[in-house]
Amino acid sequence: MSESKPTVSFLKLAGPGLVVAATGIGSGDVVSATVGGANFGVVLLWAIAAGAFFKFVLQEGIARWQLATGRTAVEGWAEYLPAWVKWYFGVYLVIWTVSVSASLTNATGLGMANLTNNTLPQSWGAVAHSLIGGLLIFFGGYNNFEKLMKLLVGIMGFSILFCAIFTLHQPALALQGLVVPTIPSGSGTYVLSLIGGVGGSITMLSYNYWMREENMRGSGFLSFVRGDIAIAYLFTAIFGGSIMLIANDAFFTAGVTLTNAQAVPRMAEALGTVLGLFGRIAFSAGFWAAVFASLLGVWQSVPYLYADLYGIVTKMTPEQREQAVKVTSTPYRWALLFITLAPLPFAFTGQPIQVVITYTIVSSLFVPFVAATLLYLNNRVKWSGAVPHNSIITNLLLAAILVLFAIVGYQEVAARF
Q1: Does residue 1 form part of some domain?
Q2: Contacts of 152 (CB under 8 A, 6+ apart)
Q3: Domain tally for the chain?
Q4: Is 117 helix (H, G, I), strand (E, B) or coil?
Q5: Which residues form the domain of 151?
Q6: How far is residue 79's CA from residue 381's CA, in Å, rounded to a whole number?
Q7: CA atoms of 126 and 134, how far apart (whole Å)
């Protein structure tokens, strides 16, 4: 096991962490931040920052577990938790896969429809993105995937930041919204949903497998990994905050109310009015890049989870399981085929945003489970070496995340049904 200590620099840190950020930022984040900015202005910027910080805590715990034990989180659950946990996760993973793949394909189709002014219909754009994503992952390999993700991060970051900078007219008020937690009347439920929706759910487990692809093993990588994850969720917070700033200027200051279903097309239309054609195209390109990056990240990483579970259920040795989760393995490629084809029927529902909202609800139920297992595994399971167990502060944060996200999940389900 390598114990080399990598040099910590921004350029080197901009690796799997940014891939995690791009995968975690999806259509749900854009819709939530847009509606939040439209309905409440900039006073909820702090909620986006808090959500990104909480996801950092979870992601750091997942990565620290693997650096200490050499096992993925899924392997840890199978070894140290009751047998029913892996079956629960397997069933949940199938449900999550269908909902998230349907959400992302619908969102990419919507993004392309915006970019082409509906020349390419949303439904066929969704189908095309799913199939293209599957082919890119099948033939591209991890290194080409990582390069493409960084390109999409650049597009989404530049486009959305450009729009945010040129529509920012109240910087002092925005700073106050970021550092002074405020919950306007009637926004309590929405604040919890906003915090819960930032930065992905099951895709946090992807970092385990990308660490292996980058050969990041052993305690020598602990500082590197923490810095890498910090950059990932800093980018997530900046991106979500930028969307909220744009929505504040486009809708809230103008007194325009907005619903989830109107978020993306109305935002592009408003920016076309404020910034001209370039503004409309910039936002549409940024939205498309965000959801297509998320689609590629899910298509590439979720098959690892299926392959890992397959190795556990068939009682493979750790060495055999590590071979089974390679991108060229048969279990990985069958899972990639499933995630590519599963969303195609949902492309023709005619309700892309409703599909996105359904995915957000399903995802919100996973985060409390991760927090609970990290409280157990990273405290009770013994390991040796320089990687520490949870500190008191980390345990308190995980307990707070467990309670908060359990409430978020309950409210999302209650609001839906």
Answers
A1: no
A2: 22, 289, 290, 292, 293, 296
A3: 1
A4: coil
A5: 10-416
A6: 10
A7: 13
d(CA 122, CA 369): 34
Nearest to 38 by CA among 312, 245, 232, 224: 245
3-state secondary structure of 159: helix
Phi, psi values for residue 70, rounded to 5°: 80, 0
Instruction: Compute the distance between CA of residue 140 and CA of residue 213 in angstroms, rounded to an integer.
Output: 14
Beta carbons of 48 and 194 less than 8 angstroms apart: yes
Residue 3 lies in a domain: no
Tokens standing for residue 138 = 């099948």
Higher pLDDT, 10 or 112: 112
pLDDT tens-digit map of 337-360: 999 999 888 777 665 445 555 555
- Quick check: 288 and 75 in contact, CB under 8 A? no
Instruction: With beta carbons less than 8 A apart as the criterion, state whether 156 and 283 touch.
Output: no
Contacts of 191 (CB under 8 A, 6+ apart): 44, 47, 183
* pLDDT digits 0-9 by tens, 214-247: 889 888 899 999 999 999 899 999 998 998 888 8
Quick check: is 4 in a domain? no
d(CA 213, CA 274): 44
CA distance 351 to 133: 22
Give the chain's mean pLDDT: 83
Helix ranges (DSSP H) in 168-260: 171-179, 188-197, 206-213, 222-247
* CATH number of the domain encompassing residue 409: 1.20.1740.10
Longest alpha-carbon distance in the chain: 61
